[in-house]
Amino acid sequence: MVESKYSGHTVTSNIPDEIADLKVDQTLSEMPSPVAAEGAFKGETEDVERPRRDQRAEVSELFSAPAMTNLSDIGTASFGPLPDTAETVHGPDDRVQITNTSVYPWRAHASLLITAADGSLWTGTGWFIGPHTLATAGHVVFIKNSGVPGRDGWVQSIQVMPGRNGTNLPFGSTTSTNFRSVTGWTANGDQNFDYGAIILTTDVGNTVGWFGFGVFPDADLLASVGNVTGYPGDKPAGTQWYNSHKIAAVDARKVYYDIDTFGGQSGSAVYRIIDGNRYGIAVHAYGGAATNSGTRIIQPVFDNLSSWKA
């Protein structure tokens, strides 16, 4: 366990008081990978109308994805079934399916097959922040308060499938048993600290690329458009879906947005596009009746993600 000066953000891993003023008054950022230039353009949302081809698309048939039909979102392991009042698709469903997942930025997102401590199987989403590190929700890597004997705690393993497209895996898959989160989540189950990471033994990120991430002032975020893509459970298994909308609200530890998501997208990046570069601003974790929300990247979150990607 690595101590932090920020209470609740003390790093914890499955391998062997907060500063009062959390006001964000400066911008900090980690840059995306050099490969990000392949998808660079000037805009705040993704160009989903003009799919691009990639030389790696032709190998997508070489790897076949595991059957994941009828599996539940990892979030239900900790929080139970989603109440009928907590819809995550608000109004007309305007999500767009991404079919060219072998190109950046889509391939920097991964479908996750999660094996819990009791052997049960779940789904989630993660996004690359470095050559061998994916950011995700804390409840993806550590289950809290499930009420099922033997289920709580660190998950056994996570199969990571970058750029998955249904049954096709353009970049194969790799399985991790090395995870990170913080004590605010693992010890206390506090939703304000619901973030974590998956550490790989190979540098897959050098092939698929990764996102930057940053700390931005409230006014900056409120003026920006949020983007979310991932692997929702209400769509065909293993298909990636994208949506965007202006950021609705922020507080000291969360970002709120009317961006359509669904169970299975726990751990997705909530990101903005600045001069063609993608920067995560939050980790998607929760649905709501009016807005969905993610764990905001503030100074201690930024520091931990930077450390975990090293």
Note down, in words, how this protein is organized:
Mean pLDDT is 86; it is low at 17-21, 50-61 and 83-87. The chain starts with 10 loop residues before the first strand and ends with a helix. It has a single domain (24-41, 53-60, 69-79, 94-309), classed as Beta Barrel (Thrombin, subunit H). The radius of gyration is 18 Å and the shape is globular. The chain has helices at 75-79, 138-141, 183-186, 205-208, 218-222, 299-309, and strands spanning 11-13, 28-30, 72-73, 96-98, 109-115, 121-130, 133-136, 142-143, 153-154, 157-162, 174-176, 178-182, 196-199, 212-215, 225-230, 240-250, 254-257, 269-274, 277-286, 292-296. Strands 1, 3, 5, 6, 7, 10, 11, 12 and 13 form a 9-stranded mixed sheet that branches. A 6-stranded antiparallel β-barrel has the order 15-16-17-20-19-18. A two-stranded antiparallel ribbon has the order 8-9. It is mainly beta and 310 residues long. The chain has 6 helices and 20 strands. Helix content is 11%, strand content 32%.
